[in-house]
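Lab meeting prep.
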Amino acid sequence: MGVGFLANLSMPDAEIFMRRMLPLFLLVLCNASIAEDDASDVAHAFSRAANFIYYTGFEHSSVTSAFSEKELRILDSNREALNLMIREALGVQDSVGGAMLTAHFGIDKNLDLLRYQILEPGRAYGWEGSYMAGEDWYMSDEQYVYHSRYIEALESITGKPVHEVIELTEWERNRINEVAADPPNEHWEWAMWISRKLGL
């Protein structure tokens, strides 16, 4: 099957094809450790990891519930290949699964991308849970379902609260302060919430 095969696919089909093949490409590129495992078991573990990582929702089972002990051992033995997928996802989209695997395996190389996701308004709020009035309406962690998961991962890896880990640049601080001072801004709620989380 040559490269021309992809040219005959629609964009959605080509994307699905590449997402399904990516784990296999990574295993080859990173010289995956398959000495103790059947190659099909390794490929299956990485295929499941890809689904977990590229899923853009925030509803995820725990890592230990989503993967078997054998699958986690395979992923742990091939962290380099696993982390290429995690970083690819966290760099371009919401990836709660990527953050959870980062925390589970203690991959501190990804602190930069967790920081990036936390400081981007993104999907600023989830509006989950019961109705709340006043300030509680927008200051509750459960409203910021994506950011909260990224913060959990960062705090799990570092063992410190987020306000002790993230040191803002002058530009970042000014950006948050400007949005927080502008209630009509679509990201005002996020700016108010992240200001409190970072102790601004």
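Slide two material, second protein:
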Amino acid sequence: MKNPLSAVLFIFLSFGLSACGTMPKNFPDSLAQNPIQVQPQSILPVAVAKLNMGIKAGTTIGRMYSLFGIPTLKIQAKPVIDPFYEKMFGEELQKAGYEVKGMGTFGEAELGEARFLIGGELIEASVNTHALLGNYMDAHYVIRWQVFDAKTKKVIYESQTAGGSVIHGIKSYGDLEAFRVAFKNFLEAGTVLAGTVSGDD
């Protein structure tokens, strides 16, 4: 006769492993809008500003989950955001037709050939990793964007967008797509942004 406890344990493990092996669907806002293409000759050069961390360093923004979805270590906000993400913003601007002239900060008096500086601040974040059979990570960010005019020394445009992603595997920069989605959603308001940085003035 089989041990009843063994049978119960087998059922529990079978259910748990199948649940951990299921990867969730993407976030509702994880599918980026297609950035509106602009004509380079009608747009003044832009530069990419540093992406600021608007969340206090050490704040818990997610967890690492082990087998059966048990939370283990906390994922905490860092003091600064890796410049690697800012490089991606420049690449997305170029894909959308903008002329990108380097990097800078809103406090700089000179931006070289760039008339406008596009920057952002991360104001909400959620990052979780799911190990073993789940083997995926999810990320969700909300970023407040600003466009700074180097000529007038004023912020002339503001917008706030969200971006989310769910990817297979747990890796460095696994949350890059969430940042990319948020930025592409910012560029999706291309009629406003393009008009703001047009060469009409």
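Talking points for slide two:
The helical segments are 4-20, 83-95, 176-188, 190-196.
The longest strand covers residues 116-130.
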